[in-house]
Amino acid sequence: MRYFHVSNEVLAPxxxxxxxxGWSKHEATSVFLxxxxxxxxxxxxxxxxxxxxxxxxxxxxxxxxxxxEAIFEQIRRMEFPSAPARHRSAFLWRDTLDAVWxxxxxxSVDSVIAECEAEHGFEVDMSYxxxxxxxxxxxxxxxxxxAEDFARKYWSAEQSGAPRCEILHGGPVRVIRLVNPAExx
Length: 185
Hints:
This protein has seven helices and six strands. It has helices at about 25-40, 40-50, 50-55, 65-80, 95-105, 125-130, 140-155, and strands at about 1-5, 90-95, 110-115, 120-125, 165-170, 175-180. The strands form two sheets. It has a three-stranded antiparallel sheet with strand order 1-3-6, with helices on one face. Helix 1 packs across helix 2 (about 40-50).
C-alpha cells in the first residue's frame, strides 16, 4: 500500500524507515513506559517528581507528552495487546493533505514528506491522541482518566467527528520518493 511519512531526518528513495519515533529515543521514555506498567498513580507521581523539572530544564520537549504516551501504552498493553506500540511504529498518512496537516502541527515546516510503500498498517484517529493533553499545573487524576478514555477510543479505532487517521506500522516501510513541496501544500 502507498502511504506518506513526515520526517525530520534526511531520506532518499529506497531507504527503510526506522520504526522508533523521536520521543522513543529520549531517556524519559523508558522511565515513563516503566511507570505505565505500574499504573495511573505511578504516571501521576512521575509527573510531580523533581526529576521531571530537571529533565525539562535541559531544553527537551514537555514531559506531558511522555506521560501521555505512557498512558496510551498502558491502555494498549492492558486492553489492546495486538495493536502495535506507538514507540515501535512508523507514523504514516493516507494522503499528502494529512501529512501536511501533521507536519504543520507536529513537526517543522522544513520536514520532509516521503511517499512510502508498506503492508497494511493499524489505522487510528489521531484526534483522540491530540485531545488527551495533560496539564501538570492542574490536578492530574481526572486528566489521566480522561486521557485513558481517549486512549481506549484511539486503540479501538473509533472515529471522531473530524478524524485525522494516522497509520501505525511496525514492519518495514520503504521510501519510494520524496514529495515535492508544491504538491504537499
